[in-house]
Amino acid sequence: MSLGNLSDVEARAVIAYATAALAFAAYHFGSRPAFVERLFGPRDDPERARTTVSWWRRLWGAAWYGLPALALGDAAFPGGAADLYLTAPHGGLAWAATGAALVVLAAVMALGARRPFYPDNYPEVRERAWTAGLTARNALVWAGYLIAYEAFYRGLLLAPLVPLVGPVAAVA
């Protein structure tokens, strides 16, 4: 792959950063609260509207952060997602450890949601009653967003810099 006089490594970085800029702009302009509330917010319940808008913004972010990173990893990089540091290096062990951590996190969230001060510390979603289903949906939406966010920043922004400037400078 080449773009003009750029080397393959430089061309991949240009493509990755152009994709990241477009994806971020799509997320930013498509997730503005007034726009999302007009489209998806229930008209009769402001509390439910805030929750719906919050979840929509996270799902929109998961789509615009995660999908371009994964698509670009498969299309533009020879090693696919592995070249973008988006694969588990230790196979099943890494997935098992991640799954165990998520189970513990879900339990902590479910128990924490029952406390009366929970809404005071969670400004985006302020439901009167945090049911198990609401807590589970909220956790799943957050998990999707954070996984996509990781793919975006590690895959699209960090990985193309490593061959150009080295790992220390890329992280700095």
Describe this structure in words.
With 172 residues, the chain is an all-alpha fold. It has one domain (8-171). The chain is 69% helix and 0% strand. It has 7 helices and no strands. The chain has helices spanning 8-30, 33-40, 46-76, 92-112, 132-158, 162-165, 167-171. α2 packs across α3 and α3 runs parallel beside α5. The longest helix is centred in the middle third of the chain and has 31 residues, at 46-76. The two termini are 28 Å apart. The model has no long low-confidence stretch (mean pLDDT 80).
Distance between the termini: 28 Å
Class computed from helices, strands and strand pairing = mainly alpha
Strand count:
0
Oligomeric state, counting identical vs distinct chains: single chain
Categorize the overall geometry. flat
SSE succession: HHHHHHH
Helices, by number, come to 7
Largest sheet: none
Low-confidence stretches: none
Helix content: 55-70%
Beta-strand residue percentage: under 5%
- Count of all domains: 1
Rounded radius of gyration (Å): 19 Å
What is the typical, i.e. mean, pLDDT?
80
Kindly list the characteristics that best describe this protein:
single chain; 172 residues; mainly alpha
SSE topology:
Elements: H1 8-30, H2 33-40, H3 46-76, H4 92-112, H5 132-158, H6 162-165, H7 167-171
Helix pairs in contact: 1-3, 2-3, 3-5
In a nutshell, what does this entry contain?
This protein has helices spanning 8-30, 33-40, 46-76, 92-112, 132-158, 162-165, 167-171. By secondary structure, it is mainly alpha-helical.
